[in-house]
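G., the chain you wanted modeled:
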Amino acid sequence: MSQVHTIGVVDDDEEVRDSIVAVFRSEGISVCAFPSAETLLASPLIDTLECLVTDLHMPGMDGFGLRRVLIDQGKPLPVVMMTAFASPETREIANRLGIAEFLEKPTDPDVLLKIVRSLLAN
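Predicted structure as tokens:
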């Protein structure tokens, strides 16, 4: 019997969030979806997550802020961060924060799935 992994998806864009969730669920990966970083941080489901896929730019706390809080709380989950507005500066911050992958939107679902599978295997 294969292990069921649970990932979190945080994106304020409902269409993007739903499409990412659909990709992972179609592959048998359990997904918890959140419309904001604050919603994730307030959820008891946070302790069940093995990987996080998040947008960078969101109202309220952004993806970098979320990563910092998770580290401060002792939850250094592997994080895949996506943004439509990548820059050398944001890539540098992502590297300093130990973001596992920093992807530009729109992201190929097959690439995202391959990355997350690789992170879950480690």
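The two ends are 18 Å apart (CA to CA).

Shout if anything looks off.
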